[in-house]
Request: fold
Amino acid sequence: MVAEPHVQIEGLTLSYGPRAVVKNVTLSAPRNGILGIVGPAGSGKSSMLTCLNRTIELTPGASYTGTVRLDGQDVRSLEASDLRRRVAMVLPLPVGLPMSVYDNVAFAPRLAGVRRKTELDEIVERCITQAALWDEVKDRLDMLGTRLSGGQQQRLTLARALSTDPEVLCLDEFSIAIDPVTTMRIEAVLTELKERMTIVLVTNLLMQARRIADVTAFMLNGELIEAGPTGDLFVFARDKRTNDYLAGKFG
Ligand SMILES: Nc1ncnc2c1ncn2[C@@H]1O[C@H](COP(=O)(O)OP(=O)(O)OP(=O)(O)O)[C@@H](O)[C@H]1O
Ligand SMILES: [Mg+2]
Reply:
């Protein structure tokens, strides 16, 4: 029996007002794998991500048809806050909350009712460690998160995303503002994390998809042109547009 995909997008069409920017996309993310999504600016990658945890519903004028399933369940049948705990999102630029490093990570667990200090300490250390940031901040957990460097803040954002113990982790161009060394550290972290969760990685860095995505999807003007095992796609894409893009001929 073929395992059911963890995340299944079916016939998704997303519009801002009358304008469709994601067009009838069907795509799935393999369980405990990394789905890479690549494509030129404006191809609808970020918009599509917002349907996975229904943050699209917070955008005025946006609407969608089609279905996103999490473990076979239509995400519209789930309670939004539950869904957003299960499907975490890391946005392109770090969004530090104006509070200490510790509180940034303890925020969501506290909201969820965790009160015991020892339990919070454990969550904070685990998540910051998973985000490859622990050694740099362990002695200054009381410092304002916004005082960290850009790359550290991005990893703090990742730690915060991990604090709800999500089963799906979506990252939208996480490395846009960070240096290559930090990027490689986070890539290594993601490769470890996928043992425990499913990762959807939108990236403008083709080589990043090539390095760590198990499956890569190529989007262009809102359409899914092609998706397949990363090695295959980069070596023999079926569609000329995929080939041209992956070869750096446009985008
Ligand atoms: N809130 C919005 N209201 C109206 N149009 C939007 C909104 N957000 C995005 N768009 C439009 O939708 C299209 C797809 O944008 P989206 O951000 O999803 O693309 P993307 O593939 O993530 O691009 P990039 O690589 O630049 O991040 C673009 O034409 C964009 O202008
Ligand atoms: Mg985007």
Observations:
- Residues 16, 21, 39, 41-47, 59, 204 surround adenosine-5'-triphosphate (ligand 1) (CB under 6 Å).
- The CA atoms of residues 70 and 78 lie 10 Å apart.
